[in-house]
Amino acid sequence: MSSGDPATRARILRAARELIEEQRGTGPSMAEVAKRAGTSRQALYLHFADRTALFLEVTRDADATARTPAEQRRVDEAPTARDALAEAVALQCRLKPRLHAVATALDTLRRADDAAGAAWEEREQARLTRCEHVTRRLAEEDALSAEWTPATAARLMWALTSQRVWEDLVLGQGWSADQYTRHVTDLLERALLR
């Protein structure tokens, strides 16, 4: 955890996110982040032990800013598991545009940059865990088709709500947010539900 000034920490996170989004193909060095944040490298290391810690915190901050507790409650407190499934897809559709730049940058960087890879893996594992919550609820409410286990159903849900699928359909094929939400929800319901 950081032991420095919260305002400096916020500037560092903002600078790192800007650089990650701008550079896309190469991750920023700690020196570049310190320079952009208007702080010394020593001050940067008071807040973040290394690039992995910095990248992890940038993605956590981006996700926390986009995924508000109220947004997540719509999934968690949906009246039925089927409603939770639809809310989860709709939430992903609302989050993707807000997180697109940082997610795309991390997706590109993760193949050659261990820090970006760690940040990407943490984000994707968290998303898979949220899918598992929905599919376990489907099973508990006896709504999950017998062909699926909650774990395999969660992986299908995770794949169909991925950044890449959203990007291909919405940005690449011109689907509206409504089309994406409706068609992905329909596909998951047809595949997973009794």
TrEMBL record:
<keyword id="KW-0238">DNA-binding</keyword>
<keyword id="KW-0805">Transcription regulation</keyword>
<feature type="domain" description="HTH tetR-type">
    <location>
        <begin position="6"/>
        <end position="66"/>
    </location>
</feature>
<dbReference type="InterPro" id="IPR009057">
    <property type="entry name" value="Homeodomain-like_sf"/>
</dbReference>
<dbReference type="Pfam" id="PF00440">
    <property type="entry name" value="TetR_N"/>
</dbReference>
<dbReference type="InterPro" id="IPR001647">
    <property type="entry name" value="HTH_TetR"/>
</dbReference>
<feature type="DNA-binding region" description="H-T-H motif">
    <location>
        <begin position="29"/>
        <end position="48"/>
    </location>
</feature>
<keyword id="KW-0804">Transcription</keyword>
<dbReference type="InterPro" id="IPR050109">
    <property type="entry name" value="HTH-type_TetR-like_transc_reg"/>
</dbReference>
<protein>
    <submittedName>
        <fullName>TetR/AcrR family transcriptional regulator</fullName>
    </submittedName>
</protein>
